[in-house]
Design goal:
Strand order of the largest sheet: 2-1-5-4-3-6-7
Largest sheet: 7 strands, mixed
Radius of gyration: 31 Å
Domain Thioredoxin-like fold: 32-132
Order of helices and strands: EEHEHEHEHEEHHH
Helix content: 40-55%
Region (Disordered): 204-223
Pfam family, one: Thioredoxin_8
Low-confidence stretches: 161-190
GO biological process, one term: photoreceptor cell maintenance
Protein name: Nucleoredoxin like 1
Oligomer: single chain
């Protein structure tokens, strides 16, 4: 996935429109992530209708206000606008953590051809290795919302772990898979401890009874 944008310039959709153009920056923002390539244009009515749905989908997976640990997900806007003014207008309504290619970058058209994008809006979903997970996830996002991401994770075999920076390993729910094993392990250890304790206690009790019998057997009752 990272290779697709190495030696390219990605721009952050923030106030300063910071450019990410070094290999380290590109790797840092795209490595080990599922990437959504959003092909759209400002003069497309369906794109305008889909935009708030996509924004809501993305913010619920990335914004700290909605989720404690942002997901391993990146959104890149591939503009098919007819002018830079159209692109800028569309970017104003896009989520501020969206990345995009500059209007003058010919790579926009190359990506359109590479992924055979015929219609807009189109959201091409890519695995971390760059292979296509979904050629167009627009309808799935409409229908299933954030549930799509869980499906993408499983299909991409993407493992998130809590020790990764700003990410949470919760969707694969390994806890439910390992709990029975751990409970059995602890139960077995508890049973062993109980058995050992009962054996020791039993031996101690038996030894005490033997001593009592010896004591009582060795003493003649007073008459």
């Amino acid at each position: 996935m990272v290779d697709l944008f190495l030696n390219r310039v990605l721009v952050e959709n923030n106030w300063d429109q910071d450019e990410l153009n070094t290999e380290r920056e590109i790797i840092g923002i795209l490595e080990n992530r599922i990437v959504m390539l959003f092909f759209a244009s400002a003069d497309c009515g369906k794109c305008q209708e889909f935009l708030p749905v996509l924004n809501d989908f993305f913010k619920r997976l990335k914004d700290p206000a909605y989720i404690e640990y942002p997901k391993l997900l990146a959104l890149i806007y591939i503009s098919l606008d007819q002018s830079e003014q159209q692109q800028e207008r569309f970017l104003q309504d896009l989520h501020k953590k969206t990345l995009f290619l500059a209007f003058e970058d010919p790579y926009r058209k190359e990506l359109q051809a590479m992924f055979k994008v015929q219609d807009v809006p189109t959201v091409v979903v890519l695995r971390p290795d760059g292979s296509v997970l979904s050629p167009n996830a627009v309808q799935d996002i409409y229908s299933y919302g954030c549930g799509c991401f869980r499906d993408w994770q499983e299909a991409a075999e993407l493992i998130e772990r809590s020790f990764m920076l700003n990410e949470e390993f919760d969707d694969l729910n390994l806890r439910s898979a390992t709990d029975p094993v751990r409970r059995l392990k602890y139960k077995t250890e508890d049973d062993k401890r109980k058995k050992k304790w009962w054996n020791l206690w039993g031996k101690g009790k038996a030894g005490g009874e033997e001593e009592e019998e010896k004591d009582s057997g060795g003493m003649n009752p007073q008459t």
